[in-house]
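Quick one:
INPUT:
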């Protein structure tokens, strides 16, 4: 099925020389989406529920959604073209006129940030999931290295 989607979650956020690596996946496979460090920070803040001194852009979007009765339904990472990931953000609005679902083209980083902020699911299309390289071993190695560093710091 062309439109089949697979649920994934953020497995780790790791700083890199070029920004933040978001390790996204499930028990079958993990892949990496590189984002700018500011977006990595925002996603991390939403994941941890960190209070912010002033509203950030995504906080403003969340306030507008709330004001207009819009809820985030899900984020879907759809494809990879020329080393750039693409995503769709699904929103729902229900009012006296009825229920409307809107699908928007959005950067994966924005889609992930909003999904995390609203505690909504993140999916990846089956075709993309089959295409990306499995980075599970890399993530396991990085996490092992971090644990070893923490153990050394305790000694």
């Amino acid at each position: 099925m062309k439109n089949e989607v697979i649920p994934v979650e953020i497995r780790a956020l790791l700083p890199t020389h070029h920004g933040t690596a978001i390790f996204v996946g499930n028990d079958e496979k993990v892949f990496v989406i590189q984002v700018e460090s500011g977006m990595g920070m925002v996603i991390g803040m939403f994941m941890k529920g960190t209070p912010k001194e002033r509203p950030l852009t995504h906080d403003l979007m969340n306030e507008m959604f709330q004001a207009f009765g819009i809820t985030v339904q899900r984020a879907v990472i759809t494809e990879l073209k020329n080393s750039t990931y693409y995503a769709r953000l699904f929103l729902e609005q229900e009012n006296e006129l009825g229920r409307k679902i809107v699908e928007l083209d959005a950067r994966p980083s924005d889609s992930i940030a909003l999904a995390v902020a609203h505690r909504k699911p993140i999916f990846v299309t089956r075709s993309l999931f089959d295409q990306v390289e499995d980075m599970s071993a890399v993530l396991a190695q990085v996490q092992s290295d971090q644990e070893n560093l923490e153990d050394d710091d305790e000694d």
